[in-house]
Amino acid sequence: RDKIGLLLAEPTAANLAAAKAAWVAARHPYQQTEAYRFGNKIVDEWEGKVNAWPLDEGLIDYTAASYGSESDENPLYNANVIANKTLTVGGRTVDAAQITPALLAETLHEIDEVETNVATGYHAIEFLLWGQDLNGTGPGAGARPASDYDTANCSWGNCDRRAAYLKAVTDLLISDLRWMVGQWAAGGAARAAVTEGDQWKNLAVIFTGMGSLSYGELAGERMKLGLLLHDPEEEHDCFSDNTHWSHFNDALGIRNVYTGSYRRVDGSLLSGPSLSDLVAAADADADRNLREHLDATLAAMQVIVDTALDGEAYDQMIGEGNASGNAKVKAAVDALVAQTRAIERAVTAMGLESIAFEGS
């Protein structure tokens, strides 16, 4: 929030770059929490406020001509709330004169019951910092100019409202994240969901989170689909080209949950009793097998990260005709699928009832 505040006060290229860097840094710890989502109803119902994707960016701001003017699925595909102080939704008028956290959360987010009307969260902020990535599967991310926030030299108009939107959506994200911190604090409902009551059911909830993120969400929805379609629009962090880190940190989060360890942003290590300890006590081979698969998945994800850091972004890797890039992404998908089978074996070793993972 401090970096975004500085950008809005002094809209320079350097301050925009600093705000982008802060967004990327904030994604690292968040993505490692996604293994808590599936199976824990409190987290799953909240997640859409902070990490919903993909989004129809025309709801929020200006877009390039290639975006198109309308969509059969979304009447607000090009509503552009930044440029328009009133919107018409299903015959009713929405007053958007004041862009506030309440307007975004209570009115605009998933308005008209369209999931791609994403008005809040990390990806709305990502779009407001980077703008559209118009490079397809070629090199380059979004290239929004800092002058989009410079009211004295406004590049695309409505700089005051764009700034108001960015401030409101950032304040809202921080509020939503703080709310979830409270849910995991002593006495919080999300914490109670996995620490109180029937401990066997609680273990099933934890394994469900691991397996569903591993299989249906990450291997399937976020990776395999985009690879099959060779479609950069299926990229998770599609404006910033930060997807390599998002996928890596999802995989790391799964391992964190299993091993009972987490490296904080300051570099210190938090560790304690783990699922691994329980599985090893029941079946040492099942525990060793799962640990090996968790490590293999992270190794495959590291290849994707290294490739991106060497200059070939994730959306380029999934491009049609990029045999090498496609193979790297497929290797990670295959590792996630094999990892899920290892999670299932651990579930059996623990004597838990069969668990249905997302996508299975």
Q: Could you tell me the radius of gyration in angstroms?
A: 21 Å
Relative helix content: 55-70%
Question: What is the N-to-C order of secondary-structure elements (H for helix, E for strand)?
Answer: HHHEEHHHHHHEEHHHH
Strand content: under 5%
Number of helical stretches of at least 4 residues? 13
Mean pLDDT score = 96
Shape: globular
Q: Please mark out the parts with pLDDT under 50 across 5 or more consecutive residues, or reply none.
A: none
Span of the ends, CA to CA: 39 Å
Integer count of domains: 2
Strand order of the largest sheet: 1-2
Fold and architecture overview:
- There is one protein chain.
- With 360 residues, the protein is mainly alpha-helical.
- It has 2 domains: 1-194, no CATH class; 197-360.
- Helix content is 56%, strand content 4%.
- The chain has 13 helices and 4 strands.
- Strands 1-2 form a two-stranded antiparallel ribbon. A two-stranded antiparallel sheet has the order 3-4.
- Helix 8 packs antiparallel against helix 9 (243-259) and helix 11 packs antiparallel against helix 13 (323-349).
- The two termini are 39 Å apart.
Short description:
The protein has 360 residues and is mostly helical. Helices cover 56% and strands 4% of the residues.
Please tag this protein with its features.
360 residues; 4% strand; mainly alpha; two-stranded antiparallel sheet; 13 helices
